[in-house]
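Side project, low priority. Logging it here so it doesn't get lost.
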Amino acid sequence: MIDHMAAKNINRERMVEVMGGKILITPAQQMLIDSWNKGKAEGKAESVMMRLDMLGETDDDLRNRIMSETRIDILEGWRSKAWGSKSIEKFVASMDEDLVMV
């Protein structure tokens, strides 16, 4: 319903507000969203690995940690740190700076 209204230029945020903050998503839509998010995370992880590969050889543990991360915000932080690092060691030392323990 919201997507249909958004397609007709009705303010999506206003519709969510009117509907009590709930967005109804079909299982098929959720599958598409999940698939898109997974692809986005994989792309960001690959960007991190591309930079680290330019800096030298990475061990399997580091590669697995990066490639298995699914949180986009963490991967974006790692990507920025990787492209700003002059060595794999400096990147690894900075990896956990932004992680917040919940």
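Brief comment: The mean pLDDT is 82.
Revisit when time allows.
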